[in-house]
Amino acid sequence: MSAVSNPAEREDVTAVRTRGRTTVVVIGAGINGISTFRDLAMQGVDVLLVERNDFASGATAASSHMIHGGIRYLENGEFRLVKESVQERNGLLKIAPHYVKPLQTTIPIYSTFSGILTAPLRFLTHGTGKPRERGAFLIKVGLTLYDTFSRDGGSVPRHRFLGRRKSLQQLPSLDANIKYTATYYDASVHDPERLALDVLRDGLAAHEGARALNYVEAIGLDADGLRLRDRETGAEFSVQADVVVNASGPWTDLTNEELGTETAFMGGTKGSHIVLDHPELLDATGGREIFFEHSDGRIVLIYPLKGRVLVGTTDLEADPREPARCTEEEVDYFFDLIGHVFPTIAVDRSQIVYRYSGIRPLPHHDDTAPGFVSRDYRIERRKDSGQPTVFSLVGGKWTTFRALGENLADNVLGELGRTRITGTAGVRIGGGNGYPKTPRRKLEWLRDNVGDDERGRILFERYGTRAADVAVYIAAGDDAPVVGDALSTRELAWMVEHEHVRHVADVIFRRTSLAFTGDVDAPVVRAIAEALAPLMGWDAVQVDAEIADAAAQLRDAHGVEVSEGVEV
Fold first, then answer.
1. How far is CA 435 from the centre of its chain?
2. How many CB atoms lie within 10 A of CB 339?
3. Which one of 1, 26, 365, 396 is CB 3.0 to 4.6 Å from 32, fit for a cystine?
4. What pLDDT shows up at residue 208?
5. Nearest CA-CA partner of 491 in 508, 467, 470
């Protein structure tokens, strides 16, 4: 919610309010809601996307930064999901190469035949049996099967197994008690929030009848239409629509409750992560994700990213009405799993630069163990007399967002009696258009568009080839550094004008990686707030309120204390 009192209504809110009608409203601007929005816009459908907080600020921002085929879903028998996931992963490597990158993944293995008897039992009982480590035989079978889904016509290398000696030659800090390692290839998303924003901008550009509003929440549904509240001003208004799509993720049931319907579709679990500034651990990973089964049967990861090390994740029951927080017990769990794989590397809390937690949008699962709950999705339809059809999305994961958005859009199109006019498969996303494929081409692109200095490289990493437009915008006015080479006044103006920035928190958490990498302190927060002030029309009181709000979010949700000299 706004840290600033009684701001003027935004132009885009005014436009939606005065028009008062659209064809489809999508509630929830996580990656799946955004993907559905883009797909519908590409079909020429008038579509409004509303999000009660900032775009991509919920479950979408709390991911493990993985775009993966889901090898472990094979154990659940979810072959359709694995096939779709690897197809979408391979597709994203092509259509979003600015954010989605290949990732070599290594599994340390401690036994040969462990789990052969217990794995079928756990499959039949949906994970209620006692966890038992998967040995080399089971992992070999799984990876061989995975290769049949995953190889993309041979462009993705086959998995490989190594014994202890060769494994330790490649990764000398691994536990010397391992018997084997298995290595295969998946993918990661370096900036998930920015990828979501790129998909959003493509949707807005696809059709003049497409609109997107952050900090606007759905609060009711009646004969007058969908009731909305602008959380920036407190103003309420109604928008009529033929179809409403509830893509609220783990909050889907709560949104349906606001719309006047009781549902029990969701049963999300909490997943937490920590980010470490730890050069020794970073070096020990060898640039690979270390992906393995911990002693409790939970699949966990240690992953080098942006010069830091991401460690996760947990899988705990959660209440979507309560904010998800990474607890000290979870931190202890992460330290234990690091020690399990890299026993000679010491870690402590002083090396944590960021922590985060989110709730997965999983379906209601009764007694099924969290790790065995399906990561697949389904679509629920409801039609009450005199009201628009409501589709509720249940489930969904980052990797399959394009296919999910297409499927959900097809349901909407069928409801409207319209036919699809174009597909999204193979359509490049935002800054992935014209992305240079080789280091030489990249250097040429930098020199021709943004400069090959540090500032140019940061812009390219942040925007992909859209950095060329940002650079032109920056050059068209007076520019000054805000956070060294990482951010400038004209780039902030671009973010306000083109990327829906409303608050300091939007910048440090979702338009940049400053918070994630631990590069935010009290002076940085103040510098960003003061640079945004003339763009947003804030006075000194409002600047202080923004600083306090960002500091509180950093402290409460992410374990980062920046309150020195800041009243919170």
1. 22
2. 14
3. 396
4. 96
5. 470
